[in-house]
Amino acid sequence: MISCSAWVAREAVAAQAGKKPLKGVQVDEELLKGLEIENEQDEDSWEEVTDEEQEADDVMEEVEDRRKGKKKRGGASTGMEDGMAELNMDAYDDEDDEKAFVTSVYGGKRPGGAFYRSSKEDPYMIDEEASSDSEDENDMVLRATDHMILAAKNEEDLSQLEVWVYEDFGDEGNLYVHQDIVLPAFALCVAAGDLDPRDTSPRKPMCAIGTFDPEIEIWDLTTVDSLQPAAVLGGYDDEGELGAADPPQQDGGKKKKKKKKKKKSKMPERRNLKEGSHSDSVLSLAWNWEYRNVLASGSADKTLKVWDLESLKCVNTLTHHEDKVQAVTWNPTESQVIASGGFDRAVYLSDLRSSGSGSVKWALRSDVEALIWDLHEPTSFLVSGEDGTVAKYDTRMGGGSDPVWSIAAHDKACCDLSLCASPRGRGLLATGSLDKSVKLWDLGVGGGEPELILSKKLKTGPVFTTTFTSEAKPLLAVGGAKGELLVWDVRSEESVVKKYPDL
Prior knowledge:
The chain has 503 residues and is an alpha+beta fold. The protein is built from 7 helices and 31 strands. Keywords: Phosphoprotein, Repeat, WD repeat. This is WD40 repeat domain-containing protein.
């Protein structure tokens, strides 16, 4: 299944146009230390065995040695080793007859004349043909017209971030996976940005990932084959000490022998959280559009946190929600105003410039699934619920005010909302639901209820993510339970073109 998706800003992608991605196979030194400690602890883990069990083990070892051609007789080697010595395999390539055979068969004025010092000397070799390796490298190079899409894909035993590239050829496009990143846990949310905490000056494609773990990983999308993120916000500190293994005991005077246990993973007794960290799963992320070093996160621990990516520290924690914080979004014109929605059936509006709590609340009829600002009316926000409803609220009417409109958009939970960013497509809203449908709506400009333009099932199964690109072109990324990402150019639909002829 694809649980979430996000488009990377075109400016960040264009900055990498024509550049080959870096190879980033890196090993976390702390991880290696942890593995060494685990191995040492496994060596110290013992269990008691009887003489009969040890004798059976010795018999099995003897059978295995015989199978491998070894025989323990006073330290003497087996006949197999003597036979290998007689063959004298080390001198096999030194026989003159073999050299004469090669020369006579393949010919040439000099010994081995059929072998060339370089491919340029061989008339049957064509140097101009590109190798498959070079072709693969060229496929990794981005163009200025390319779009980059992030999609979190979760399977039974694997979670990964797939980085897709949509090649825009005008009337048609091509979609392929540029790279994938293995994640430590089930991915729940993703956000795109352009600041690398290790070097904040250049703009480059970056992303933040939230999972069932209480940490947030920041990944560099210009590097492929990385084994570790560029930075981690929050999460667990030192793993703590494992409990000491019980020493072997004597029982009934029987002779006991120690035997090493098979290696198995152990959970530490204590896991200390880093200062300022979430204490539960990270459900939502939002990268600030003006302050490149600011990231907001909502969690199942009922808190909303604001992070500074330069210091990798939490700089603000809001605790007004009474249940899981499912959605967070920055206002598109006021970069210090943030809205959040949760499973407490409430949306809060917070101004981070206010020294006090400064939060305004709207009570809803169901748990919040998705929350976005109206790009063309930034004083209003749209919210979808678990009951399939979609509603619009005007913040100028104050907290607790009634919605401007509310519609039963879907029969089941409406998991995602997205507005077309193009001014020519003003009011074009996409919704995705567990009822397997994607719907396009016209919000109009008069404040009336939305008009349904189109309802379509794209064979994604239950839909979890529907996201318009931030560019003028109306491309909609759709993902769902079947695990395939689709990019839909909604201008291919006659009903959309009829409603928005200039789109």
